[in-house]
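Re: your question from the hallway

Yes, I did run it. Sequences:
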Amino acid sequence: MIVLAFILLFTVAAILTVPFVPENKKGIITIAGVVLNAVFSSVLASQALFSENIIMSFYGGPVFKEIAIRIDPLSAWFILIMNFTVLTSIFYGTQYLKAYSQDSSKLTMHYVSFLLNHLAMIFIYIVQNTLAFLCFWEIMAVTTFVLVIFESHKMETLKAGINYLIQSHICILFIMLGFIWVNFKTGSFDFVAITQYSSSVQPALGFVLYMLFFIGFSFKAGFVPFHTWLPYAHPAAPAHVSGLMSGVIIKLGIYGIIRMLLLVQVNYVLVGTVILVISVISGIYGVMLAILQHNLKRLLAYHSIENIGIIGIGIGLGALGKGLGNHYLEFAGFAGALMHTLNHSLFKSLLFYAAGSVYQAAHILNVEKLGGIIKRMPQTAILFLLASVAICGLPPFNGFISEFLIYSGLFNAINISNHLSFTVLIILSIFGLVLIGGLALFCFTKAFGVAFLGAARSKYPEEMQEPNKMMLVPKWAIAFFIVAIGLFPQLFVGGASRVVSLFSGETLNFQPSPYYLTIMQKVGFASWTIILLAMVLYYVRKKITEKVISTSGPTWGCGYETASSKLQYTSGSFSRTYRNLVKPILRVVKHEERINSIVPGKANVETHVFDKVEYVIVDVPMRHLRGFIGRFKFLQNGSVQFYILYGVVFIFIVITIPFLIRAAYSLVDLFKQL
Amino acid sequence: MTSSLSLILIFISSLFFSGIVVRTKSIFSGRKGPGVFQPIKDILRLFKKGAVYSETSSFIFQIAPSIYFASIIMAILFIPFGNMPGLISFKGDFVFFAYALALGKFFMIIGAMDTGSSFEGMGAAREALYSMLVEPAFFILMGSLALFTGHTSFADIFASLHFGSHISYAIGVLATFVFIIIAMVENSRMPVDDPKTHLELTMIHEVMILDNSGFDLGLIMHAVNLKFAMYGAIIANFFLTPGYEWYFSIPIFIGAQVLFAIIVGTIESFEARFRMSHNSQFIFMLTSISLLIFLGVLLMLGKIV
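Structure:
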């Protein structure tokens, strides 16, 4: 209790100080506030994760009534993940924002929102009172909006921000519907009421209730088809906010989905199947679109959808395992999902920070115009490479660990049911996950190869170089964990197993945990082996090639001598064959001016890829809605007299409604008497 | 000691594998052809040579071949021999196997992109696309075998594959077929890619390594041999006798490798390379064959009535 009071106090103190200090101090105050909040909340979280749950409650007035605060391992897991990324984000962000130091008011807004956002996220994870939860959720949504529109002078950024704001309120709408439903039936705001209510009604109602929550939280998490805000908001935000959003804020949705799975008593097999199908589709669709993006940050944003899909596959498997009573499947699924939540928050934030550094140095985010950055910014390039290997789920880094858990779940699941449809579902999920992996590899070899390697495709600023040390330190800290999880997976999966035990109920006698931990140990050993093998081989190569003469020359151009950076393969050409393959599924628009005459004129090709789901679900209905509302345009004629008339008419109608109703009743009575 | 048997045998087979392929091809085309150990001699010569590095390239280009080679050795460590597990074996090890190979590919692809050459970019793009398309076939096949045997590691699967009924023979043959094609695609061989072609525009693997020379080129060339021998070992595992009778197993293993090499040579002699645009369809077809195997397994287990 005191700790929470401290957290509130720190935030308020920092928020009150930030506006009144000079620009260069604002960042330091914010860092201080965030660090203190992170440390205090992490202490609570570690206690919950490693020893016992923290349960308390206080009276929140006549509206909120009793506000329950419970920190269990699930909350703790998410708090710890969140705190780490928030810390790296603010350390990186204060450096990133130095370029905008002349704009005092914007900085103040930004830092205040950042502090509030952190506070709101901590409380989202710990309060178990529906009304308080919604309040914090709203604070989080609005402050994120402010964080996103930092560069509000750009029209695009504002549009993306408003798109985000609207969609996050649709998300709140769905969650609220669920909460109101429960509150209406039970009269309680406590989360426990959800369990009580759902176990007392028919399974079908429980399923509908869960689906309300699932759809609501899916907007936040970015499952297809609720993902459309994500690819706009991420590129528009400053890099540290993009990293924060992708790494942590969309994970609030994942938290919600898992939390509700714990609370709502529902047919787990059915729910698991639904989640699994949606997740596989999200994963494949996200990465399919990601490959064809030219904007580096947009590409990463689509990858978030893919990774949310992978997390969802884990959750779906876990739910199936719970429904079928198979603890091994349950463990592999949930632990895989939780580990991937952690892993994704690490490598995705690192990728966004690295992309942000590239943007600040080169002022370009279009992959087609980058190239050869590795020579100017080797550390940034190595970090980006590390995160790319990790996000593709390749050993020896962390991405592999979570994907491996999910794979083991899937391969275990093949055997556990006698239903043909179940086995087919699992094999199709395996197919989906493999395809996601392959496409991710395709995407990141393209992104890294085109943007960081080869020769520069445009003229960079003279002073382009590695960002300062303060900006690199948080990135290396993330990189450290990426490698550590890959090499010592058993430690981290051990932590996740505490969370999974919430589902299985039994904490002491939980069999799958040691079973998977030994496998994890062996996976860690294999990761060590591959690193050692590569190092030994490279050492041998170095020893042998030292003795022979090595020279350097221009790249072999198959006889063509005057190589130019324009001759390089671009991101568009890299993905050309792939683009032709997926044309039926995505909306590819190509503008082409060919050379037709003998004397070559100007020629150009432009390809744009659009999201078909967005087109069908958002664009077309919006167009119809606009057409419909357009019919009432005559009301908006601009003359004040009319507007006063509308007001008068409105007031008149409001006043007369009771009379009219009474008149209607008496009329009905009259008819009855007749 | 016994668990390193497969590693040693794969290394030995890799020494003569390409030689047999080349020899088969030369016999079919009516030439005398080089000796069986000529390819490995070429590689040894390459190891001693100096290298030319492109000025455009960075250190990525230099580390890529080593990581590629290491990833293949890593993959080989998982291969069992009969019912002796490989050096590293755990439940779900074939996931690590496939992903370790993918790691090597990742580095080869970015290594090619590092030179800034349009040709190598082309090869890289094709390699990335085709390896992505071939992956599902492997996983669905392993999924079917996992369903069939109830185990999820290479060693357990191969140890408990028993050849009782007729359908299980059919599955073995189909699986072998899929593995042969996977090996051909992964090594960029005939119906998909022609290692002996002379036009860079029609190459996949060869055009990716245009700029590699000396020791690195040697590594890449021997990686192909190792990869072939590795897939040969997997195929041989389908036919190895259960038990520890090494005097049966080792000749069967070597025989399977030689037969596999001859099959590769034969395919290369009589097949023409596909048009690039047909490759994706062809590779994806593999997935449907593995789905067929999956259906066969379902049929055997009585899940489909």
